[in-house]
Amino acid sequence: MKILKTIQELTDFRNTLKSSSSLEKNKIGFVPTMGALHQGHISLIKKSVLENEITIVSIFVNPTQFLEGEDFEKYPKRYEADIKICELANVDALFMPSVQTMYFKDEPLILAPAKSSFALEGFKRPGHFDGVLRVVLKLFNLVKPTNAYFGKKDAQQLFLLQNMVQTLFLDVNIIPCEIVRDEYGLALSSRNVYLSEVEKQKALSISKSLKIASREVMQGNLDATSIKAKMQEIMCDIEVEYIEIVSRDFQKLDMLQIKNSIILVAAKVGTTRLIDNIWM
Ligand code: AMP
Fold it and tell me: How many A from CA of 7 to the centre of ligand 1?
C-alpha cells in the first residue's frame, strides 16, 4: 500500500495506474474519511475493494467542516492503527494530506444549497456542509474516482453530496453504504471514544428509539407526531437536539410514506454529539 501525502505523490500514483495494466476497466473506488477508523469505515473500504480494481482511502480531518468550539483540535487521531487497517483491507493507496496541502489562502467557495443544508444538521451546525462539500469536491478532483463510498449514517451529508454530483455534473458514482452498529445497536462513530461506560449505556436509547419508531411504522402508525413523541420518551435521559422524519430528498413529513422515509436523531450524551437514523 502506498502512503501519499502530497498532491504530486497522488498524481504520480494516478499516472502509474494509467500506464500499468491495473486499470483495465478503469474502476477506482474512493473512501474519504477523517480517520480513527472503525468497522463502519472498514465496511465502506471492503465494498470498494470488492467493486473496483483500485481503492484509494483518504484520511483528512477537514477543518472547514468544524464550527468554532467543536472538537477539531481533539478529534481522535490514530494514524498508525489506521495505516494497518487499510493495509489489511487491501487498500492500494492511502492519501493523508496536510491542511496546507488541501487549502489555499484565497480560493473560491462552494456552498451547500440553502434549502436543504440549513435544516437539521445544517441548522444545528451552520456552515458544516459547506466545508464537507468543499473538501469532497477537492478530493474528487484529485482522486478522480469512478465510485465514491459514503455511509448512510450521515444521511443528510449523503443527500447533499448526491445533489452536488448531480448539479455540478461530476463524473462519479456515489455509493451509499449501510450503517454499521455495535452488538448493542450503537451506531459506530469515531466520536464514540469520547463516551464513558455510563454514557455509552445512555446512548443506546438513540438506536432503541429508532427501532421502536420503525416497529410503529410497520404496525401501521403513520402519524409522525406520535412517533416522535414515543422516541422522545425513550431518550428522556439524554439531550435530544432533534427527531425528524424526512423523505429521501429531505423534505419534512407529517404522515409517513413508509417505504421512502428516513427517521433521524441528533442528541448530546454528556458533551458528545451523536447522530443516527433509520431508512424505512
Ligand atoms: P468520518 O470519518 O466520520 O468522516 O466518516 C467517513 C465515512 O464513513 C462517511 O461516509 C461516514 O458516513 C461513514 N461512516 C461513519 N460511521 C459509519 C457507520 N457506523 N456505518 C457506516 N458508515 C459509517
Answer: 24
